[in-house]
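Before going further, learn to read the protein records used in this course. The integers have meaning only within a learned vocabulary of local backbone shapes. To see the layout at work, look at the sequence and tokens printed below.
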Amino acid sequence: MIKKLLVVLCISIANLSAQEVIDISVKGISNSKNDGAQIDRQEAIMDAKRQACEKSGVRLQSQTNVENFQVTFDYIESKAEAVLMPGFNIIDIGYTADGTYQLVLTGKVKVVNEGEQEEHISAKELRYAKSLHDKGELIESSKLLEKYINSEDENVSEALKEEAHYLYIKWGYSFDTGRDVEKYAAFYPESDKIDVLRQFAEFSKNKQVEYDKTFSIEDEDWQKTETTVDKELYQKKKSIVSETLIVKDFRYRPYEVLREFNIYQKEDTDEPNPAAYTFKMSYKDGDEIKIIENREKALRKNNAMTFQHSSSGKRFKYFSFKGYMIKGDIPLDKDEYNISIRFDIFPRSF
């Protein structure tokens, strides 16, 4: 169901320590419009969590409209500076005479600082998996999660398996997100994370970027340079692409993807086709620039009419960079050089 909702961000104004934990018990109430039990219940939960923020000493600061309820619901949880500790309880009252859905939420709330907001992992066994994930050791992290997901050890709790399964999907390790989300829903039908996982599975089917362009390069486009590619020095350069693409993740956070593609030639030649090229793709993670792909190649000395480079792509923080191809060729009946670049960017994690 698509509807406009108010996103509430909670900003701390209390004198609570960033580590303080308090007990809360609040009643959550949906709006009076009947949108179906599932949506009305989620509205009541969101209302209860908003009140929990206030109970911990935070106030409402900023508001914005978002179209999709489940994305909004997850966004609120990710941005609040006061978060519910694992193990909170929800007691459903149900629909009341005034047409609202009501429930009671009890548990503990912790005020967190900015560095703690990104991930709240309850199981100590999974914190090492997160540290590996944060360091970019993705294979090791995913294998550790799989160990708990598939464990038959009676000492491994169902709660630990459930959390590992959720993080496996959330961090983008799933090869088939839709299938793994439905598996999660079948294993843990009472989980309050099912809806947002299904929303992400649907979101992840769509390309954020589908790039396919061809550039024609004229002789006068060459510029002077002194660049070393594959240990060879080149004095002529053409900048084919230098641009920034904006992609947005599941929570509508924008990321800048930076791309540069250049071709090079020796000073003592008038050949239109290049003798070398460089391709660099990176993205901004806060103030840090992280490299996705950085490739350079010197072409054959006889200046072949064509060159091609392709790859299955790489994963970066919230996206995967797939199926890219760089191709250059001079048609036999023309003098101008054509460069083609194509790639796709898919959402991968959230």
User: Anything to note?
Assistant: Residues 1-118 form one domain. The CA atoms of residues 199 and 311 lie 29 Å apart. Residues 1-19, 59-80, 114-119 have pLDDT under 50 and may be disordered.
